[in-house]
């Protein structure tokens, strides 16, 4: 029996125009469609594969505003069994450290968990820090940038692909694993899965329910802050090369001037 926790984050859809709120540089959540982060769909898929290979239970845990329930329901409709949703106005603007503290406390609510699966990096905050902080807080080993994962009794084996080859990693359970984008192709929820998800238990908790002090979370208590953000400058028009029989040399001269060749 593998008792798996998957951390899922609701993020603004990368296909929408994403903005920061002018008032405090936190995310303007209303300006974009919200979706379950794709890397977290892959984390759920990996958990479901382990569950389907033997006995197991998958609990999804999310820290986010009320509408994060949509992301949670999607994970449940893929096949996860139950969920914990931490939702509290005090969490607005929390930094990665505070978010990780709250997630660690929520994970500890899942009795006898063996494995925590996360994404390497969320597509909005892109800190890539939360899983490592959680591993430290819970005193657990962490395997990062995982491309292949196997549970082997009381230990876990993982492969990480690098430019130079494959790194084989191993840790005793319980452990935290963060997965890379190439790990799998997540399944689409089936109609049956969507219907079943409506009845699956979702426990909604506040920071007080988790025993976390509200003075440790939120924008006012963040240890770091976003001071300024500016949109990417629009693309400038490219250089046009007229081919009058010497197009190749002109392109080569341009590339030399740009120090590209
Ligand atoms: C617009 C904007 C402004 C921000 N401002 C600040 C700021 O001022 N100061 C600051 O320190 N930070 C700021 N952040 C970072 C913000 O606090 C983080 O989004 C949050 O703490 C998680 O970090 P991350 O998104 O970088 O996660 P990562 O560490 O990149 O996430 C990796 C994985 O951890 C898990 N995970 C992460 N967050 C959650 C969650 N909420 N619920 C469940 N699982 C989760 C997921 O599995 C995810 O794939 C800002 C982020 C945004 C988008």
From TrEMBL:
This protein's record includes keyword Transmembrane helix: no
GO CC field: cytosol
Domain Electron transfer flavoprotein alpha/beta-subunit N-terminal: 24-214
Alphabetized Pfam families for the sequence: ETF
Keyword Ribonucleoprotein: no
Cofactors, names only: FAD
InterPro entries: ETF_a/b_N, ETF_b, ETF_beta_N, Rossmann-like_a/b/a_fold
CDD domains: ETF_beta
GO molecular function per UniProt: electron transfer activity
Keywords: Electron transport, Transport
Source organism, top-level taxon: Bacteria
Family, as annotated: Belongs to the ETF beta-subunit/FixA family.
Subunit structure: Heterodimer of an alpha and a beta subunit.
Task performed by this protein: The electron transfer flavoprotein serves as a specific electron acceptor for other dehydrogenases. It transfers the electrons to the main respiratory chain via ETF-ubiquinone oxidoreductase (ETF dehydrogenase).
Protein name: Electron transfer flavoprotein subunit beta
Organism name: Amycolatopsis japonica
Gene: etfB
